[in-house]
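User: I'm putting together a small comparison set for a docking exercise, and I want a reference complex before I start. The sequence is below, and the ligand is zinc ion. Could you produce the 3D structure with the ligand included, as structure tokens?
Assistant: Of course. I'll restate your input first, then give the structure tokens for the complex.
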Amino acid sequence: MIDIHAHYDDEKFDVDREVLLTSLFNEHGVKSIVNAGCNIESSLFSISLAEKYENVYAAVGFHPQEVDMFSEESFEQIKKMLSHPKVVAIGEIGLDYHYGTDDKEQQKEMFRKQLQLAVDTNMPVIIHERDCVADCLEIVFDYDVRGVFHAFSGSKETAKLLLDRGWYISFTGTVTFKNAKFPVENAAYVPEDRILTETDAPYLTAHPFRGKRNDSSYMKYTIEKIAEIRNTTFEHIERVTEENAKRLFGI
Ligand SMILES: [Zn+2]
């Protein structure tokens, strides 16, 4: 399994980070992890994890909720990080109107800058979108970039718009939730060469461990569910999602 989006820099992992990561690779069938940055600090942390663990890769960038910390200087720092050999994507970047839209214009400006950076450096992007799908797509489609919509929670119609433009769609534990609607529809709909899987650890833990701290070992429930929905085997979904992750991130 390849977990294309996790946050092992989160303080929830301070107690057992090393033991946990080692066991994920040695005992739980996790082949690779992309650790996503949200600001300078977590992007640097992602890089340090990638330096320490052969199978950890880093994404660097500014999350929309971190827009207050974004500056010309921090943008330059992100740019510099891209030359690190284990940085494989710009992310997570995007828009988030969940907690209000007061900073909407700043979010959009920061998002556009990071997308342009992806174009200029030919890096894939990891997109975060929450409660702002129309604005997000309007911006994204202005740029000739490749990448993935992580923890995708949109409708099948939105998925189609993304798939038509070459985007990948990533599934988390939410596809296993009892009330899951769109993720289940999309798990049946998205072609197998565009499906990715992730945990977004420590969040979004799959059923039956919903609410617990998430880690990449729980991704097996997500893969199992996708296999069930598509009437195929765990091994098949595991294999195609690994191939897709390798293709997108060059890992
Ligand atoms: Zn995330």
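Residues 5, 7, 36, 92, 200 surround zinc ion (CB under 6 Å). The chain has a mean pLDDT of 97.
User: Thanks, that's exactly what I needed.
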